[in-house]
Amino acid sequence: MLYKHVTENNRGIALIITLMVITLLVAVTFELNRQMRSAVTDSAMSRDRLTLLHMIASGVEAAQAVLIQDKNTTEIDSLQENWADPEKLNEYIAQVPFDDGEMTIYISDELSRIQVNAMVAYPQGKEFNEAQRDLWYRFIALLLSQLSEEDDFMKEIIEPNAIINPIKDWLDFDDGDAITGLTGAENDYYQSLDPPYSCRNGPIRHIQELMRIKGITPELFMHIDQEVSGISQFVTVYGAVAAENKFSFPGKININTAELPVVAALLPPEFMFLAPEICDFRIEKADNLYLNDLSSTTWYKNVPGCSEIEISEELITTSSDLFRIQCAARLNDMFMSATVIVFREKESESGKWYCRVLHWTYD
């Protein structure tokens, strides 16, 4: 009887051990399966991410090829050209050999924007560039005219100089006790903030830096509301050229590519209402052909009602070698985009045009 009891106990223990082993093996199997699925997923994501990087690089290369081809065929740059035509760009993209995924590219003229650093006359870097100051006054006045006095950030911004003077003080090399006008701000002001920081006292390096300047709120920088874009949509930090072994910012805007608010700011206040007509004139077509020649810097005088307008030659041009390429790619459930600033220039030895990348960022 004792032997039988011991045997039954052993069988019970063996059964328990067997169940424990089975449970452990099942748990291990599930964990290994999970790890394998995770590894496969991670591998697929890494593969897709690498593919997207190649797609973006190919899209940027294609955009550069379009810009180089354009430079070899025409001296001016306008919205009438292939680089500014989304349908033409899609045709170039279709030649990029990627079977899966989707890609889009968009090219815009960086000189269609107001060069914020041109507000100060470099290389001296002390005084206003008066033509640019007047341009900024009209531009800010136009934006502010679309705001309501009930907006929170309008309580401190009464007129354009409340924006212009702090920008000038941020850009100029001087950091003395004197500020520009009553609304300016130098280092003492920024050091009194919490947290404190220093005034740049030089050219702005990144457009987001504008939000560090007195008076420029996130709303004014990004967008006023759903219908009115903010400052950031119409300005650039690029445009420097060599001058006296240093640099300067000419600040000339390509009137052939500038957006409506910028075109309006180029005009005398009494003629701002004609900006839409000027913009439409640039892309007027008949039988799929552009009707108007945009090679002269005074072509705007041919627009009905604009014959008496005078835009300072210091402010406008009809050509550009500075462009912004925006490329986006989608593959499976992943999305990636990049913004690239390029400058067209000639190789010193071969004399061939190429695009030099000034800035590349993944958005």
Would you kindly provide a brief summary of this structure?
This protein has 363 residues and is an alpha+beta fold. Helices cover 36% and strands 16% of the residues.
Tell me the layout of helices and strands.
Layout lengths: L1 H70 L14 H8 L8 E8 L4 E2 L14 H15 L16 H11 L15 H5 L26 H5 L12 E2 L4 E3 L2 E3 L4 E2 L5 H7 L8 H8 L2 E2 L2 E2 L25 E2 L4 E10 L2 E13 L6 E10 L1
Parallel strand pairs: 2-3, 6-9
Antiparallel strand pairs: 1-10, 4-5, 7-8, 10-11, 11-12
Helix pairs in contact: 3-7, 7-8
Describe the overall structure.
The chain has 8 helices and 12 strands. By secondary structure, it is an alpha+beta fold. It has a domain at 114-233: EpsJ-like (Ribonucleotide Reductase Protein R1, domain 1). It has a 4-stranded antiparallel β-sheet with strand order 1-10-11-12. Helix 3 crosses helix 7 (260-266). The longest helix has 70 residues, at 2-71.
Task: Please name the CATH architecture of the domain at 114-233.
Answer: Orthogonal Bundle
Rounded mean pLDDT is: 87
| CATH homologous superfamily identity of the domain at 114-233 | EpsJ-like
What separation lies between the terminal Cα atoms? 81 Å
The secondary structure category is alpha+beta
List the strand order in the largest sheet: 1-10-11-12
CATH class category of the domain at 114-233: Mainly Alpha
The portion of residues forming beta strands comes to 15-25%
Please provide the count of β strands: 12
**Whole-angstrom Rg:** 30 Å
Sheet having the most strands: 4 strands, antiparallel
- Oligomeric status: single chain
